[in-house]
Write a structure and sequence with these properties.
About 85% of the residues lie in helices and about 0% in strands. By secondary structure, the protein is mostly helical. The chain has one domain. The longest helix has about 40 residues. It is elongated, with a radius of gyration of 24 Å.
């Protein structure tokens, strides 16, 4: 009796063809998205220069994007600071180098974790709001109504949100980093009785001004990416309430992934710049 091949349903040629088709489709969509984001960036910069909005519009966006995002940023960075304090002390305690917990906690927060956590928090809270708000306006034809009245939707809707995110992201990052540093130092110094003077002395010794500058430059890029990606998803919304939910989900996911990818690329670029021009 012949033995039946249990893998006879696998057709390598057809599977490879479908895989190449999917990969090609993803590559085309990625290139199209990059072109749309670049075009939206150009239109936004032109609108900021030629068609400034009323102060009330900017102040409203500064309040909704900055002030209302402060609690989630503080909570996220404080939690990360506490986790870093636990891990650094547990690791360095084996080598009797507990005072080096300061550089480990503070350097990680300033250069990497505070910008990334702030970016992810903004992508989740602000990005979802941008995509849902603009998506609802798109499906209810409010954006078309703005065009009929002679108002540029990019200048009225996208530019103020873009500017608010770009301006406020570094401030939120700085506040979040400070909260994480205070939380980590409280745990290491006050709870585990590590010498506080040595803790902060070592931190000041190993953290350069260049590290602080790069840690504050990253959120500017993150804020711009979040605004552009989520506004683009909102302006592309179709299909009523279901389309709004899909635009919100895709906007948050894409913005979060771009924050992580941009952080990796910016870290490489800033390190290369330091090696070329800043290293003694």
């Amino acid at each position: 009796m012949p033995v039946t091949n249990p893998f006879s349903y696998v057709r390598p040629v057809r599977t490879a063809s479908r895989l190449s088709l999917v990969l090609g489709h993803m590559a085309v969509e990625a290139l199209r998205a990059m072109g749309d984001v670049a075009r939206l960036l150009g239109l936004t910069l032109v609108a900021l220069r030629r068609d400034p909005q009323r102060r009330t519009i900017y102040f409203a966006q500064l309040y909704h994007i900055g002030y209302l995002s402060l609690p989630v940023v503080l909570a996220g960075c404080t939690a990360i600071g506490l986790v870093l304090g636990v891990q650094s002390f547990a690791t360095l305690h084996r080598f009797n180098a507990e005072v080096m917990s300061g550089p480990m906690v503070n350097f990680s927060l300033i250069t990497q974790l505070a910008p990334v956590i702030t970016g992810l928090m903004l992508a989740g809270r602000v990005g979802s709001n941008l995509a849902a708000e603009l998506g609802t306006m798109k499906v209810t034809e409010q954006i078309d109504a703005l065009r009929v009245m002679g108002t540029d939707p990019i200048a009225h809707l996208v530019a103020p949100r873009f500017l608010a995110l770009v301006l406020l992201s570094p401030f939120l990052t700085a506040i979040g980093a400070a909260a994480g540093m205070i939380a980590g130092s409280f745990l290491v110094v006050n709870v585990w009785q590590v010498d506080g003077a040595a803790y902060w002395f070592q931190s000041a010794k190993y953290i350069r001004m260049y590290d602080i500058i790069t840690g504050l430059c990253k959120p500017v890029i993150f804020g711009g990416l979040i605004a552009l990606v989520c506004c683009r998803r909102g302006l592309m919304t179709r299909g009523g309430a279901t389309g709004v939910g899909e635009a919100c989900t895709r906007g948050v996911v894409q913005a979060s992934i771009l924050v992580l990818v941009a952080n990796f690329l910016l870290s490489l670029i800033f390190q290369k710049i330091w090696d070329l021009f800043g290293a003694p």
